[in-house]
UniProtKB/TrEMBL annotation:
Belongs to the citrate synthase family. The keyword Transferase applies. GO terms for biological process: tricarboxylic acid cycle. InterPro entries: Citrate_synth-like_lrg_a-sub, Citrate_synth-like_sm_a-sub, Citrate_synthase, Citrate_synthase_AS, Citrate_synthase_bac-typ, Citrate_synthase_sf, Citrate_synthase_typ-I. Pathway: Carbohydrate metabolism; tricarboxylic acid cycle; isocitrate from oxaloacetate: step 1/2. It comes from the Bacteria. PANTHER family: CITRATE SYNTHASE. Pfam families: Citrate_synt. The active site is at 267, 324. One of its GO terms (cellular component) is cytoplasm. GO terms for molecular function: citrate synthase activity. This is Citrate synthase. PROSITE patterns: CITRATE_SYNTHASE (PS00480).
Length: 389
């Protein structure tokens, strides 16, 4: 096979050059365009971070105002998209609905297929970031049998999303600032994460010269899986199954026996505490206080984390909590049904997917993604007619 490298799961293959996100997995560092997430979550907001991730620099006041204006004026979706969503079964998984409706956007904006048009690139990025919360909220409301709520563009990006999820009566939904902040922080933490499964999917599909809607739909599909964004769902289901701290030793034994995985633990790149998990952990108590709820699952999560971090099985393999270990607890406290957790992640990741697509389009070394293989099947075997098999 000559100089071909066999690298299943691409653990040691750099598929591109990228200036979007820096990760140091050993030290637990994550920077968007060079700025540490600790600073961004403290001082910025998701829309500003989206601008940063996409453009590569922080906006001036004028740039920021124009950006917010553009995003705010693209939050509505075509009425036919609404009808398209109506066609799903009453119990359709919101992530499946999101993936289909993002793909469907490409048919509403066929001009985006001209990927060389700079204006189309920009307006498609704006449309994706602006419409993703609307699609996500429609999918959520559909799964609950509730009427859709149209965007309220007088609210912030995250406040409007909460309104589209939870508004029940006129005139307006007033988001609790603690909940709005926690969700905005989660979106910032998810904004990009270099060449993970979904970003790689965006780039592979984009490399066949596909528009950003089609390419980002591939990203949403990648995120759906329980090893990736679907882990936040799996964590909650795991905690519900463990139910009480008394059952933790048996559960951990089952993990060590190789019967199952401790969901929300481990990461391909982080071999230390995921810095995103540390930040979001800091918002859990505040969200519970805001919702006035107690979470029995929180006690299980705290105890499970403590025991796993004290256990050689996990420390030897450098398995630490990742962002999804804590995000599910927050979503649950907010009253979001488990199946809708991953759509939250998708909203946060949209600027990253779009930036990765943009970077690909501007890459002078751009070529269609086409990995090779090591063939292990038979050769030169004769066709056997049906009656002789
Ligand atoms: N629980 C128990 N053992 C584990 C876990 C886990 N969560 N993760 C890895 N291991 C063990 C694995 O069995 C293997 O052990 P051994 O060397 O004895 O065979 C070793 O650790 C290395 O595992 P791996 O599967 O080769 O690691 P990977 O880099 O291919 O997988 C992962 C990374 C995230 C898919 C994996 O850690 C996992 O399945 N974690 C649980 C799912 C999860 O929380 N995913 C969210 C990732 S963060 C959010 C995102 O970016 O999507």
């Amino acid at each position: 096979f000559g100089l071909m490298t066999y690298d299943p799961g691409f653990t040691n293959t750099a598929s591109c050059r990228s200036a979007v996100t820096y990760i140091d997995g050993e030290k637990g560092i994550l920077e968007h365009r060079g700025i540490p997430i600790e600073q961004l979550t403290e001082h910025s907001n998701f829309l500003e971070v989206s601008y940063l991730v996409l453009h590569g620099h922080l906006p001036t006041q004028k740039e920021y105002d124009e950006w917010v204006y553009d995003i705010t004026h693209h939050t509505y979706v075509h009425e036919m998209i609404k009808r398209f969503m109506d066609g799903f079964r009453h119990d359709a998984n919101p992530m499946g609905m999101l993936l289909a409706s993002v793909g469907a956007l490409s048919t509403f904006y066929p001009e985006a297929r001209d990927t060389s048009d700079e204006f189309q690139r920009y307006v498609s990025a704006v449309r994706l970031i602006a419409k993703m919360p609307t699609l996500a909220a429609f999918a959520y409301r559909h799964s609950l049998g509730l009427p859709y709520v149209y965007p309220d563009n007088d609210l912030t990006y995250t406040g409007n999303f909460l309104s589209m999820l939870f508004k029940m009566a006129e005139p307006r939904y007033e988001p609790d600032p603690r909940i709005e902040k926690a969700l905005d922080v989660l979106f910032i933490l998810h904004a990009d994460h270099e060449q993970n499964c979904s970003a790689a999917a965006v780039r592979v599909v984009g490399s066949a010269i596909n528009d950003p809607f089609t390419s980002v739909a591939a990203g949403v599909a990648g995120l759906y899986g329980p090893s990736h964004g679907g882990a936040n769902v799996a964590v909650l289901k795991m905690l519900e199954r463990i139910k009480s701290a008394d059952n933790i030793p048996d559960f951990l034994q089952s993990v060590k026996d190789g019967n199952e995985r401790l969901m929300g633990f481990g990461h391909r790149v982080y071999k230390n505490y995921d810095p995103r998990a540390r930040i979001i952990r800091g918002h859990v108590d505040e969200v519970l206080e805001a919702t006035g709820k107690s979470s029995p699952l929180l006690d299980v999560a705290i105890e499970l984390e403590k025991r796993a971090l004290d256990d050689e099985y996990f420390t030897d393999r450098k398995l630490y909590p990742n962002v999804d270990y804590w995000s599910g607890i927050i979503y649950e406290a907010m009253g979001i049904p488990t199946d809708a957790f991953t759509v939250m992640f998708a909203i946060g990741r949209t600027p990253g997917w779009t930036a990765q697509w943009m970077e690909l389009m501007n890459d002078e070394e751009f070529r269609i993604a086409r990995p090779r293989q090591i063939y292990t099947g038979p050769r030169q075997t004769d066709y056997v007619p049906m009656g002789e098999r």
